What does this fold into?
Amino acid sequence: MKAFLRARPADSLTVAFLIALIVISVIFQGKLPHFKLLIGIYGVLLMLQLFIISRSGMFNRNRFLDITRSLIFPTICVLAIFDSLELIVHNINPQDIDPLLIRLDYALFGGHPTVMLEAFQNPLVTDILQMAYSSYYFLPLGLGLILKVKNRDADFDKALFCILLCFYLSYIGYIIFPALGPRFTINHLQNGELKGLFVAEAVQELLNRLEGIKRDAFPSGHTGVALVVSGLAYRMSRVYFYFSLPVIVLLILSTVYCRYHYVVDVIGGFLLAVVTLVIGRGYYVYWEGRKSINHRR
It folds into this structure.
């Protein structure tokens, strides 16, 4: 129990989120055909996370184990939980909100942004923006590796907590507001498929295979996570901030150009980033204050 109370906020956050997913799965088990598989996934991840917390001293003393705890395991958690959402979201909340998002986009722009952007469609631009969209999977790891290499463990722990918080909040958003996105709902309005010059189609196919069909459009996790990484990098690694900034700008543009998101999703992603950074920093101030009080006792 003492080990858990002293656990890094990022580890405690993952424990809390996995328990929440287990509770949700139990409550809706009658609607979940893969209930046992979900409980197995979340149960294994939870046990591993609790083991990591209980053996924190061992992980602190070994660099490889520390990298495993700090980078590899959180990445596995994020990917495994995201993949599991395909088995949850539409079973417990079958009402997609795409019609509402489409209406909001139309009200804002007097048309469908993904269709309007066809005027700027170019194979080379499509390649560049599709690659920028895919950089989402590497931006958090890049910041984490820089902080770890520089032995800035305190900054790393703060960054990890905020990034995980953003991922988990976006997953909650997908459960509450399931949406497929414009590439599925209004593809019939497009004048043609997106064509790249070299790599766009191959990358699209790879992402489709890896991600499957999920209701993960609102809010835009790509936008939220990228902006959180940018905000953290501005404070913790100015070099990485300036290096990643052009990529992040292109990534946000790509979410609509590549037809993954409505503009309203991107706005939701901006709000997600703000909420994440405010809650993350506020909680860390509270946690460090409690930690200081406990050390004085």
Remarks:
- The two ends are 17 Å apart (CA to CA).
- The mean pLDDT is 92.
- The longest helix spans residues 263-296.
